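re the bet — no i am not wrong, look at it urself. input seq straight from the record:
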Amino acid sequence: MSFVADLRIVLKGRDFRRLFGTRLVSQFSDGIFQFAVTGFAFFSPEKQTTALAVAAGMAVLFLPYSVLGPFVGVFIDRWSRRQILVIAPMVRGTLLLAAAALLVAGVPESMFYAAALGVLGVNRFFMAALGASLPHVVPPERLMAANAVTPTSGTALTFVGAGVGFLLREVFGGGAYGTALLLVISGVVFGLSALIARTMERSLLGPSYDPDRPQTREAVRNVVAGLVDGARHLVRHRRAAATMGAMAAHRFLYGMATALGIILYRYYFTDGDAEAALRGIGVVVATSGVGYTLAIVLTPWATERFTLERWVPMALAAAGLVSGALILPFQEWGLPVAGFVLGIAGQSVKICADTAVQRDVEDAYLGRSFSIYDMLFNGMYVLAAALSAAILPPDGRSYLAVAIIALGYPVAALVYRLIVRPPVPAPSP
C-alpha cells in the first residue's frame, strides 16, 4: 500500500507526471534495446556463444556506466537538463539506426558493439539528468515518496520492455535482420520520450546559476581527486563502507551466476538450441524480477525487525546456501528458483546499501560516494564475467563456479558482520 500511496501523492504534480512519463518511456525502450543486444550477443542461432563472448557482451552493457558515471555530473550541472532530455533521445536514436544498419550490412561485430557503447554512453547522461531533475518537479516534503516510486517503476518498465523485445524477436527472428528491427523500434520509442520532455519549460529542470561553480575543465580534473577523497571519507564510516562492499560482493557473485546460467542454457540444457536457451533464460529473468519486486516490500519489514546490520548478512548467507544447493544438481528447474532467491537477496542488499550511505555519509560527500557506488555496482559485474571466461567449460557445467558462488556469499556475510560489529569495550582494571 505504501508504494501505491506514494504514487498517488506524487502524480498530483503536472511537471512530475511529465518527467515520470519521460522516464517510463525511455526505460521501456531500454528494455527492448538490452534484450536485442543480449539476444544477438548470446543467443543468435548462427553464433557460437562462449564465456569470453559473455564477458565481452557484459562489458559493452555495463562498462559505460562505470567509466562515465563519475564525470556526468560535471556536465548535467552546467547544461540545461531539459535540453539533455530532448537532445539525448535524438542522438541515441541516430546511433541505434546506425547500429541496425551495421548489422544488416554484415560489418565486423566490433563496429556494432562500438555503436552500442555509444548508445549506452548517451543513456548514462540521460538517466543522470532525470535523477538530477527530480527535485525541481516535486516539493521537498514529497521528494522521498518520489524517490521511492521512480526507480521501482522504471525498473519494472525495463522488464516489460525486455518482455516485449522477446515477443518481437519471436516474430522477427533472432538473426541480424530481426535484431536490427528491434534496435529501430527501440530508437523510435526512445524518441517519444523527447516529445514528452519538450512539453516542459526549458528552465524548469535547472541547473540553477552559480557564479562560484568551477569551470568545466577544472571540474573534470577535480573528479579523480574527489573520488579519492570520497573513498577516504567512506573508509571512516565503516557501516556505510561495509554495506557498499556487501553490495559489490553480491554483484560479483551474481555476475558469475549470470554467466554460468547463460552458458548452461545455451549448451548443457538445450544442446545448442539458441531459441530454447533464450526462452529458458527468459524464465530466469522473470523470476529474478519477481524476487526484486518482493524485496521492495520485504526489506523495510526485515530491517525494522532484525536491523539493517543483521538483515544484510542474513540475505547474503541465504543467497549463497540456497542458490548453491539449487544450481549444484545442474537441473534446469533449479535456475529459475535460484534467480528468484538471488533477486530477493540482491535487491535487499542494494536497498540497505542505499540507506546506509544516505544515513551515515555526510551530505557534502554523498555525490562522490554514490559515484564510487555506481562504479562498484557495474564494474564488479563485468569483473565476474571476466573470471567466468577463464574458468567456465564450453558447456558451463562448472563445480568450481558453483562453489565460488555458494561459499562466496556466506564469506561476504561473515566479513560484513565482523566489520559492522561494535568493538567490545576493554574491562576496567
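see?? The chain has two domains: 3-207, 229-419. told u. also The domain at 229-419 is CATH 1.20.1250.20 (Growth Hormone; Chain: A;). so pay up
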